[in-house]
Write a structure and sequence with these properties.
- By secondary structure, this protein is α/β, with parallel strands linked by helices.
- The radius of gyration is 22 Å and the shape is globular.
- The termini are close together.
- The chain is built from 16 helices and 13 strands.
- InterPro entries: Cytosolic_Fe-S_CAF, Fe_hydrogenase, Fe_hydrogenase_lsu_C, Fe_hydrogenase_ssu.
- Pfam families: Fe_hyd_lg_C, Fe_hyd_SSU.
């Protein structure tokens, strides 16, 4: 699904930044270049193609293109190699956080269970020199819980503020960037202010975990492994505010495909290892997910919470009804013969554009929409499950969907670790502290209405 500018070639902005990066590389001494590349010299540079991106060529500035080009395996191994040198002043604590939607990809590729694939992945990373490997599910817990609270508040205030509803999710970085850069102020007030799981994980690692380990944010190099390229864009804007300073929450993003390439080119003898937690010596014994077939399941969790809080209804099974296509689904709650909650999930930009057009005309009938830029959702992110021709590997994706569906579901409300963090890290859910750590605001630098005429 491409706009008129999309090709497999890189856009002009990225081409320019590649020239700038090459100039920097040329200036580097051959000895140093050889030392930093090491055994992984065959890895491709980190690049984002327009067909991998989710908006038109106004999306990425030249400066952002330079920073994106630095988010690749070279940057990761630069830190690994610095840690091997005698100058300890240059050493960093390496922490890698893995998104749950990446694990079915590795499980399918390794022909392992998700839990065993997670341990294999963790063992490989620690064999390279990574100190801690985390699961981002705990960050998604926070994001979902804060989204639930915000929806209930918006629903109750809707009569006073017409832009309170529909509430649109903000966990997908491709969608949020499109909303900010292209759609602008008519749409951004509808975005949920809860930070995405990646943004919250940056705060958890650099702020909470760093303070527990007596480390400043600058002493930690935090890497995210995720299913799509847009997380690289998201990392450019993730600032963590601590008591002493402001720093970047995520230093580097690697797609699942990039990490698999690293594993395939490595001759390391891998010993399985258990994923770490943010709580000292505690380990993650089993992989868990949220109640979403292809994503973190914001719709299902917010729907259940709203039904109970607003209408006293316990919803055990969320029933989806496909409308225009399988990537646009609806969920409703009826009470007394009347629909009192109407939710939807919209995946892919054809569905997103239709949703936005109806919203601008005041004809969107939903209270809440879970918005995901990738057709098929997060599991189908373009950073994984691609065939050699660049198209989706449909057989692999079907296998991944089956694997993901078998992962046990854990409601965010049931996490004792999350409740402990609300008490310890967020000072008993102190409102200013929660607002600073778990919520954000959105820019409204959108283009004129003609920006909606892009043909996806």
């Amino acid at each position: 699904m491409k706009c008129e500018h999309c090709t497999r070639k890189e856009c002009n902005k990225k081409t320019k930044t590649d020239d700038q990066e090459n100039a920097l590389v040329d200036a580097t001494s051959p000895a140093r270049e050889k030392e930093e590349k090491g055994e992984f010299h065959k890895l491709a540079d980190g690049k984002i193609f327009l067909s991998d991106c989710l908006a038109c060529d106004s999306c990425v500035t030249t400066g952002e293109g330079v920073r994106i080009s630095q988010q690749n395996a070279k940057d990761f191994f630069r830190v690994v190699n610095l840690n091997k040198k005698c100058d300890t002043s240059q050493h960093k604590v390496l922490a890698v956080s893995v998104c749950p939607q990446s694990l079915p990809y590795f499980a399918a590729k390794f022909n392992l269970s998700v839990t065993d694939a997670s341990r294999r992945l963790c063992g490989f990373l620690k064999g390279l020199g990574v100190h801690y490997v985390f699961d981002t599910t705990i960050a998604a817990d926070f994001s979902i819980l804060e989204s639930q609270k915000e929806f209930v508040r918006r629903f109750q205030q809707h009569s006073e503020d017409k832009r309170a509803l529909p509430m649109l999710t903000s966990a997908c970085p491709g969608w949020v960037r499109y909303a900010e850069r292209v759609l602008g102020s008519p749409i951004t007030p509808h975005l949920c202010t809860a930070k995405s799981p990646q943004q919250i994980m940056g705060s958890l690692v650099k702020d909470y975990f760093g303070s527990q380990q007596h480390l400043s944010p600058d002493e930690i190099f935090h890497v995210i492994v995720g299913p799509c390229y847009d997380r690289k864009l998201e990392a450019l804007q993730e600032d963590v505010h601590t008591a002493s300073r402001t720093s970047q929450g995520v230093d580097c993003v690697l797609t699942s495909g990039e990490l698999l390439q690293m594993m395939e080119q490595s001759d390391l003898a891998v010993k399985d290892a258990t994923v770490d937690t943010l709580f000292g010596d505690l380990k993650e014994e089993e992989v868990r997910r949220h109640d979403g077939a292809i994503s973190d399941g914001y719709l299902a969790h917010v729907f259940r919470h709203a039904a109970k809080e607003l209408f006293g209804e316990e919803v055990k099974e969320v029933t989806y009804r496909a409308l225009r296509n399988k990537d646009f689904q609806e969920v409703t709650l009826e009470k007394g013969g009347e629909v009192v909650l109407r939710f939807a999930a919209a995946c892919g930009f054809r569905n997103i554009q239709n949703m936005v057009l109806k919203l601008r005309k005041g004809r969107l009938p939903y209270h809440f929409v879970e918005v995901l830029a990738c057709p098929g959702g997060c599991l189908h992110g373009r950073g994984q499950a691609r065939a050699e021709d660049g198209h989706a590997d449909k057989a692999l994706l079907r296998q991944m969907e089956g694997i993901y569906s078998e992962i046990p579901v854990r409601p965010p409300e049931s996490s004792e670790h999350v409740q402990a963090l609300y008490r310890e890290w967020l000072h008993g859910a102190d409102p200013p502290r929660v607002q600073a750590a778990l919520h954000t605001s959105f820019a409204s630098t959108g283009l004129p209405p003609s920006g909606l005429d892009i043909k996806w």
